[in-house]
């Protein structure tokens, strides 16, 4: 019995060694053309480096930069990821050579799911459609208040709403995150849809709750993006998709109302601008998905803006001795 087990174990080891050798021979030529980096394991790549006890993603990348330089390869599963850790190199890659380097990835599982549910929009599109949609987005931001007093008034309205909430607490500590998220969401919504939402609106609160839960996950580094088998067991991507579905229903109501009340001579917000662009020669790349793609774009924008404020406010509060220059009234 023992002889049989030893013989089978030897056979298994030989088989695994052969698989490793074949894998190494197949992947070696492609790795020769890549920047240096840690040697990847079969199937896993360098994924285990992120799962070591006490491992921090930023610290791992920092140590790799010290060892391999400003550009290195880090492989997760079978996907090689190239990291650029230098401002000048980033500028050269994505500004000077942006036509070659700045395309969005199409081989991430979760991004494919997002595109399927939400369309591409400015966040995920490439090439000419991206340029035209970006141009329209920048035009919309200028036309609807960015850098103007009209937007300042919208911001002040939300600031006063948050201050009212704080004043109702009678000096007790306040968790600022939900209120900042509501305030920033309303400013963005006023540009996108021409309206704000009441802080007590149940649909609005459900949407923000789902966004908060979904954005706890770094969706680009979900294991499902790199290991196909994990996709059948992962719950993280389903959280993101569910958030998109809730956002979609909310946005469809707003867009339907814009369709019913659209006046090409009275452009009220970003949605109206896209509707108008669809009827012009320069709007040939606008098919309506751009509006609905905001169901992906908006959660990211809501979360990132409020998160920035959560960092800025404590910093200002901790350095109250610093005198800021007065704001210009012009």
TrEMBL record:
Source superkingdom: Eukaryota
Protein family per UniProt: Belongs to the cytochrome P450 family.
The keyword Transmembrane helix is assigned to this record: yes
InterPro entries: Cyt_P450 (IPR001128), Cyt_P450_E_grp-I (IPR002401), Cyt_P450_sf (IPR036396), Cytochrome_P450_fam2 (IPR050182)
Name used for this protein in its record: Cytochrome P450 2J6
Entry's Gene Ontology molecular function annotations: heme binding; iron ion binding; monooxygenase activity; oxidoreductase activity, acting on paired donors, with incorporation or reduction of molecular oxygen
Pfam families given in the database record: p450
């Amino acid at each position: 019995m023992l002889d049989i087990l030893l013989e089978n174990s030897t056979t298994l080891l030989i088989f695994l060694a052969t698989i490793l050798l074949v894998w190494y021979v197949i992947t070696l030529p492609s790795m020769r053309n890549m920047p240096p980096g840690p040697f990847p394991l079969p199937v896993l790549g360098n994924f285990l480096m992120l799962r070591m006890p006490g491992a921090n993603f930023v610290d791992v990348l920092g140590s790799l930069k010290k060892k391999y330089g400003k550009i290195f390869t880090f492989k997760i599963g079978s996907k090689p990821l190239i990291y650029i850790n230098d401002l000048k190199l980033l500028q050269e890659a994505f500004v000077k050579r942006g036509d070659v380097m700045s395309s969005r990835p199409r081989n991430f599982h979760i991004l494919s799911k997002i595109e399927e549910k939400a369309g591409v929009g400015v966040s995920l599109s490439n090439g000419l459609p991206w340029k035209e949609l970006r141009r329209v987005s920048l035009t919309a931001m200028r036309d609807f208040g960015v850098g103007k007093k009209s937007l300042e008034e919208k911001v002040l309205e939300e600031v006063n709403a948050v201050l009212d909430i704080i004043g109702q607490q009678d000096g007790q500590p306040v968790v600022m995150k939900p209120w900042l998220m509501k305030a920033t969401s309303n400013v963005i919504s006023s540009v996108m849809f021409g309206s704000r939402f009441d802080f007590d609106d149940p649909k609005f609160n459900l949407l923000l709750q789902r966004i908060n839960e979904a954005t706890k996950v770094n969706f680009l580094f979900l294991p499902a993006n790199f290991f196909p088998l994990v996709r059948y067991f992962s719950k993280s991507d389903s959280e993101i998709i569910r958030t998109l579905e809730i956002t979609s229903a909310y946005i469809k109501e707003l867009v339907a109302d814009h369709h019913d009340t659209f006046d090409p001579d009275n452009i009220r917000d970003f949605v109206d601008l896209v509707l108008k662009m669809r009827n012009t020669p320069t709007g040939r790349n606008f098919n309506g998905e751009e509006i609905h793609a905001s169901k992906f774009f908006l959660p990211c924008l809501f979360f990132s803006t409020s998160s920035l404020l959560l960092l800025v406010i404590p910093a200002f509060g901790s350095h109250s001795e610093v005198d800021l220059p007065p704001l210009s009234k012009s």
